[in-house]
Amino acid sequence: MNPVRIAPSILSADFARLGDEVRAIDAAGADWIHVDVMDGHFVPNISFGPAVMKSVRGMTTKPFDVHLMISPVDAYLDAFAEAGADTITVHVEAGPHIHRSLQHIKVLGKRAGVVLCPGTPAKMLDYLIDMVDLVLVMSVNPGFGGQQFIPSQLKKIAAIRKMIDASGRAIDLEVDGGIDPDTAARCIDAGADALVAGTAVFKDGPHGYAANIAALRGQ
Ligand SMILES: O=C(CO)[C@H](O)[C@H](O)COP(=O)(O)O
Ligand SMILES: [Fe+2]
Q: What domains does the chain contain, in order, with CATH numbers?
């Protein structure tokens, strides 16, 4: 398994200083930059779109890990690829043709990720696992930062770890929502190798970013 990768979610950044915030989490040791895109339809919140993401893409060379909470999503995939996404992750719950969406992401030359909401079973991955580069398990209901971790998702993480190992493919297993040093350790024990964190990274302002990221690694 890979050493854990930490992906701070810029949803919790100061949007008035977004470029500086991306530079700051890069300098503080972020492995990936997690970009939460919310459409006010699939989830009850609106964040930002590809133009805002593109405007900060040049602030770091770290991979952009783009979590699309958009339904329907297919019409937006090209725009996020063009705006500098490295991994594009789409919800199985967001439309009837998840397989087509994942195929399209691969055609765009990007890493394809699939994400499951807390109420969605791991078996939804049975016919997708052979085509994805990343599985994202939501440990909160998507739409907002600062929510409480849902412990039932640990069992799902462990089940997906087995599916990934059985596949023989290199697939990242990422968890998103309510991650702090305690829940991070529990997710890693269950088999996660990438963690998204918004509140736990950004809560103290820029002087705390490096220590907060290190704490999620158990350091
Ligand atoms: O996808 C998300 C919400 O839908 C965010 O990535 C997630 O909530 C991160 O925020 P926090 O660490 O504060 O829970
Ligand atoms: Fe997210």
A: 5-216 (3.20.20.70)
